[in-house]
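Late entry, evening session. Most of the bench is empty. Finally got around to the prediction I had been postponing all week. Sequence below, unchanged from the version circulated by S.P.
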Amino acid sequence: MKKQRILLEKSFRKLDIPQKNIEQFCLYLEILSEWNRHIALISKRDKDIINHLLEPSLLFFKIFKNSNLSIVDIGSGGGFPAIAIKIYEPSLNITMIETNSKKCAFLTYVCAKLNSRCNIINKRVEEIETTLNCDVITVRALKILPLIEKIKKRISGGHLLYITSKDNHLTIPPKKEHILNNYCARLYRFKELVG
């Protein structure tokens, strides 16, 4: 736990954002590691969870400063970026969409342990019955282009924050972009995207 704390503190300095809720991050990473032994929440290539998953997720706060935002995270998996964002700024209203029921069980468990209120939907985007309204849609490491039109039918969002590798581009230039190591967070005006 001490080693994780030191790595987290280093990450906050690297990102140039204030340190917040480090104990909660340590608990989250501990639970993630424990569950990942039994179900595949994160790739085995992502052994360096803090650098490869957590830091790119926290690039959110290099773009957004408002703590009253509503967020819909698509393909939440092991909780990146949604859980990381919620831990850093607990006042954010977050809905996570995840198709895998085991991953949803993890998300529900970790939210309960962290005392974080999040809405978790165990469905594909196109199966959602009502339109979700949000300020920001977040997506990490998902092939988004084939899903754009399906997402537009079910989610009404102002912006899309796409967290991915540096070389993964969409059809239009981003409004903002932050690059960290081999990862970047690209902000798009959602209505301008074409699938």
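Two things to note before I forget:
The chain has one domain: 2-192.
Residues 57 and 81 are 4 Å apart (CA to CA).
Will write this up properly tomorrow.
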